[in-house]
From TrEMBL:
Biological classification of the source: Bacteria, Pseudomonadati, Pseudomonadota, Betaproteobacteria, Burkholderiales
Keywords (A to Z) from UniProt: DNA-binding, Transcription, Transcription regulation
CC annotations in GO: cytosol
HTH lysR-type domain location: 1-58
Organism of derivation: Caballeronia udeis
Keyword set includes Glycosyltransferase: no
Family, similarity comment: Belongs to the LysR transcriptional regulatory family.
Pfam families linked: HTH_1 (PF00126), LysR_substrate (PF03466)
Protein name: LysR family transcriptional regulator
Entries under PROSITE patterns matching the protein: HTH_LYSR
Amino acid sequence: MKPNQLRTFLAVVEQQSIRGAARLLSVSQPAVTNAMRELEADLGVVLLERSVSGVRLTPYGQAFEPRARFLLSEMRRTREELDEIREGNVGRVSLAASTSVALTLLPSAFREFRSLSPGIDVRLSEASLPTSLAKLRDGSVDIIVSQMMEPSQSEFHITPLYSSPLVVAVRSGHSLARSRSLRELSDAEWLLPYDRETAPHLLELLFAAQGATLPKRIVQCTSTAMGLRLVGTQDLIGVFLETLAQTEFKHYGIKRLKLREPLQALVICIITRRDSQLTPAAQRFFDCIRRQALLAPVSSPDAASLVS
């Protein structure tokens, strides 16, 4: 397998046509066709089914696609590592961070990293599990800093940083703003800044542990910024991390409810691939994040005990 064959295959997957892949790669259609034939011959399987309406992946192609992405990513990382050894300050780091991390820990970690590595290309994105985990798998993201809802996933290495309790919040003036128990809130409409695939047990953590009835009306919202805005303007009950309550609630007209029941804490972690070594630049960013987490007021010394 050659890198140009892998790139050609992924271009065909993205464009769903030979013509589109040729246009994307600025090569001729016969060049795309030949690269695909060579790759299929090398692998001994048919990756694509061709028709007048375009191309689609065979079962072999579906299995090969994430591997192709990972192989190209590992080739890129290898080149960057060798270049950094030779030239000292080149390469790229791709990091996905949750909103709460972006508003608290990331600025100081980025400042330290940039002072150490001014020439490294940094690419940042908002972490939205499971999308970010898929990018971590295929190598397009090096590091995720977020809460890990399912810490038992063996394919990832999880480094706990600190724990942040969950808080329940409403807009100022909400009719339930004086509520003191989850049992008073089960008939209201709730908003969760996660979806059921991301946090299937979040409601159970909140309600079942307290013997309260699960709410029947739930708005699922994977954007924290959108969730803050909606809770601040609508009659919704939101669930957020304590770190967001400290920094953002005042900007959205949101107040936390002073509930009697203690709420579950989530652990903020650094998530990396267990089977892939970080480049020197990515390892440096990893170390900056971990160091700043120890210095930050959000840190909790018992976070490690919350991750299996």
